[in-house]
Amino acid sequence: MCGILGGYCDESVPKEAIERALNEMEHRGPDDQRYQFFGNAFLGMRRLSIIDLAGGMQPIGNEDESLQVVCNGEIYNFVELVSELKDKGHKFQTSSDVETIVHLYEEHGKDLCSRLYGMFGLALWDKKHKTLLLGRDRFGKKPLFWARTPSGGVLFASELRSLKILLESVAGPCRIREQSIYDYLSLGFIPQPATIYEEIHMLPPGGIMVFGGGEPKIESYWEPNFRVKQVISYEEALEEVRYLLSDAVRIRLRSDVPLGVFLSGGVDSSVVAYEASQHVSHTLRTFTVSVDDVELDEAPVAVRTAKKFGAKIEVLPLDYAPLDELHNVVRAYNQPYSDSSSIPSMAISRAARKHVTVVLTGDGGDEVFAGYRRYLASHLSDMLDWVPKFVPKMTTQIFGQLMNKRRSMLGMAERFSRGLSTSHGERYLLWTPDMILEEAKRSAWLGSSEVRSTERLIDELLPEGLSGCDTHQYTDMKMNMLNDQLVKVDIATMAASLEARSPLLDHRLAEFVMSLPASYRIHNGKLKSLLKDAYQDRVPDEVLQARKRGFEIPMTTWLKEDFRPVMMDTLGSPSGKVREFLDGKFVDGLLDGSILQEKNTTYIKYALLVLELWLRDV
Questions:
Q1: Which residues, given as ranges, of the chain have pLDDT below 50?
Q2: Cis, peptide link before residue 463, omega less than 30° from 0
Q3: Where are the alpha helices (DSSP H) in 436-563?
């Protein structure tokens, strides 16, 4: 695991800029750093030592040093790859998982990424052909930013701020992208491949870039595929899920440093902890947190679950000052990002890092196995296509008058009814973030009139011919999971120099689950049924049958108390930066509660506060 950077361009990137950019990523790699020039190309990295502690420093070359690679992430199947490549005559200089990449390139060229099982953002320099290859893992667990230089070259980095330093050392200041702010107001994040800057982009997940001068060529080597379905019994599917998940956990336990499992009281992390306990020869270490709210505290369940698995569990203190953490989040995430669970995620990561360097998590379980209520709504919507459009509009009015909370059953029913009579893009925004939709946003927008609606962006993602559940899961993988969940985990853990691994996002497991009918993931109306039923006799019933609980924080209270002074001094000020993009009356109405009362106004206020603080810090 590390932070990487580099480029291939005619400009002479100053060493001072490279060193500053590397220092910005010190948290990603506190153990060592190095950079090397290869003519007009250069590669650099900050290293967090996980595999081959003594010999794994990068860049790593092939036998004749004509290929050089840097990689952020882990290649989990490197043991099998090394054996295969040695049989073909390749000579290895290290025991690093990263060295497999240069030898795979010799065998498969740009198709090497399809042979990798793991999470990665990689860059390979081919001296002979003067070609730079960039590659990113299938789901986008690891980030990789890139930009063009004035001469037409390419620069890249694992973090946005580091790439901005490199780019601005050879070009002018980066410009804020108004379309990104417009989308952020509806989503709470900036959708990839765009960033907050006009000049900087992200390599898409499952993508490669080949650059040898001229125009960079970006290709996709993997996409989530819900189209191809296989005929298999439900019982056979359960057995295959157990087999694939067991192997996914097995290869993610490879580490030369202390490793543990994040264990909440939820299904996903409990399943991962169970499988890990079956593979380790020593006592498995697990970690959970305790909170004051008895209704939300999952620590007692986690402790009982760990005991059943024969694992050791540490109950970590969740110690943080809300206002300090707010400023930490604004800086750490490099661009506007409003998922407030990033605050406790960063605190948990810091606490866990005192004990281990690597953790396995349950991330991705909801998105792959259909664990959210919105998937049930999408599944049911297929059965209601015949209902005239005026019926959902009537029921929306009725539910709206009866509901007292957005997240109550009536609140969910109101949003469900409202979504039935809309386009896919608007439905997705209603059923997922539920922030500011096009009509309200456009009327308050003061920026460029050329921005397109966020609903249209989502509509353009839509593959045709899928069921409602498949469609929503696919969209989540391209939007919410990619830009929110995976970003949160990567930044929060890396800020503490902690590596997080996600077995439930193993591409072999995900491909299998996607190939099954939606009715297997929501079997007899039960969310995440495939995973729950697969582990019926292995994971405690109190875990499998518990209601779903997210990582709740008292944001409403924080906005009224801890955050209120800074919110009113910045966002509430007539000179607020957000007011350069949104009408001041709209901002004031949101703050005093006179508008958007049917929306998730707590989330919207927090999102605008984060945007305001980011604009002031940029």
A1: 386-387, 390-392, 396, 399, 401
A2: no
A3: 438-444, 454-461, 468-478, 480, 486-494, 507-514, 518-521, 529-534, 541-544, 555-560
